[in-house]
Amino acid sequence: MGTLPLCAFSAEKEYTDGVFIVNEDWYGHSNSSINFLHPDDPDGNYWDYRIFREANPGKELGCTNQYGAIHRGRFYLIAKQERDPGATVTGGRITVADARTMKMLYQSTLIDPSGMQCDGRAFAGYDDHKGYISTSHGVWVFDLDNYRVKGMIDGTENPNGYSAGGNTNSAGALYHGQCGSMVIAGGALFVAHQEYGLIKIDPTTDTHTATFTIGDKVGHDGAGIGSVVKAKDGSLWLSVTADTGGLGEMLPYLIKVDPATLAYKIINIPDGCYPPASSWYAWTPDSFCASSQNNVLYWCGGENSWFSTYRIFRYDIDSGDISLIIDLNEEDPVAPWKVYGCSMRVHPQSDEIYMSLCHEFGTQVYITRRTDAYGNTIRDYDMIQNYWFPSIPVFPQHDGDEAGIADATPGTAPGLIYEGGSITATMADGLTLEIYSIQGVRLMSRAIDGDRASFAIDLPGGIYVARLGHTVFKFKK
Fold it and tell me: Does the first or last residue of the chain, that is N or C, have fewer Cβ atoms within 10 Å of its Cβ?
């Protein structure tokens, strides 16, 4: 058999310049979905819809996939359940895809390997080898090399046990004592725990090392945490709920926390402004988010936390100024737009804000709005009508976005050559070569040391997918 150079996928779409919108989609009818926005397309072809299904025929995400995060070139998608009651395809609570092509690399219906109900919430990547999944019942360690859930971290469990109340019963254990948003800061993992407050975990040992309680800090017995975000300067910021029962009432504070010492400062929300809304009652990642370019926080807030969808606030940490930058009611009091739930995030490079807007909860009419950092509208993007129920915008990573991402030498491109029982990687120093079956099962993972390296691999006849750094190849044995 002659030497066969492997060519990168040329006919497949790549999603590198734009915005992913992860959608809950229509509960009771359909599994979750992902749309991709090309915000600067010169021909006005702004949208690619349901891109995960397009890239993976016959495969779908799970039910109410609220969270997505790109880490080391892979898209980690976490759903509450594996299949919507109205769907015909079983997806997964955990789905991993190539972040450029959306080709599925792994999927699992379970988070808790024992099979007990353990519904997905969020994902945080720590390094090349390990990530964490927050759930309705604790935080679980996820082995990124082998796509294996290794176990729950003691001290993060739901004190109410596993849910027996059903997926949509907000009075059951499923929606009390949950773990929610997570960030990596100061070399530690921090988790918002509905019952306990802010939990600190040592990633070197995967042990719970401290708990930052809330009620005693704000002088309000029974107060809890809404969510946690990390500011550009590395400080942690917490929103504050009036209780831990998920009833939606917020207290007029932010709490700044030093990730190293847990020293804190209470920031009072002034009259005329509102604190970040929270949604433990049917968990979403919340609209509370931070700029990567400036020491600034953003959130939606209003009189009723569950439906605080009209007003967007901007907090300049350095100056201490909290300002209302968008009031959608003022734009059109008769038929105002509303931010749908948590669907608002800040672009890490441009510092522009992207948000999903609708008129009413039950409408099929959505737009995505793009504004500058002060809330001035740049453009609205119309969408086809559908019950999208958008969750969070997710932004593709580029070189330098995340420490530790290896890439080819500038001006070169990594390549693969398959010859007989050997595969050779070229221009690949510092990259990792992974080979998958067409079903997404990983068959090999090797770190490349040097510009050229060869590995023996015994493959039966068939079609295979190889990933080298950010480049995806396909070949046939």
Answer: N
**Alpha helices (H) along 196-254:** 215-218
For 77, the token pair is 């998608």
Between the CA of residue 455 and those of 417, 459, 462, 465, what are the distances in Å?
A: 11, 12, 19, 16
Question: How far from 476 is each of 7, 49, 57, 101, 420, CA to CA, in Å?
Answer: 12, 30, 19, 19, 11
Cα separation of the two ends of the chain: 10
pLDDT digits (tens, 9 = 90+) for 235-281: 999 999 999 988 889 999 999 999 999 999 999 999 999 999 998 98
Identify any residues that bridge with 323 across adjacent strands, giving them in sequence order. 314
Token output for 27? 């509960």
| Owner of token pair 């490349």 | 448
Cα 21 from Cα 36, distance rounded (Å): 6
∠ CA(187), CA(450), CA(15), 5° rounding?
Answer: 60
Q: Is 453 exposed, middle or buried (0-12, 13-18, 19+ CB in 10 A)?
A: middle
Tokens of 181: 């948003």
CA neighbours closer than 13 Å in the CB half-sphere of residue 216: 7
* pTM across the whole model: 0.82
Phi/psi of residue 351, nearest 5 degrees: 65, 15
E strand segments, 302-451: 311-316, 321-327, 338-346, 353-358, 366-371, 377-382, 390-394, 415-419, 422-426, 432-437, 442-447
Distance between CA atoms of 386 and 32, rounded to whole angstroms? 12
**428 vs 174, residue with greater confidence:** 428
State phi, psi for 413 to the nearest 5 degrees: -140, 135
What is the H or E stretch that residue 330 is in?
helix 328-331
Q: In what order do the strands lie in the sheet with 353-358?
A: 338-346, 353-358, 366-371, 377-382
Does an H or E element contain 329, and which?
Answer: helix 328-331
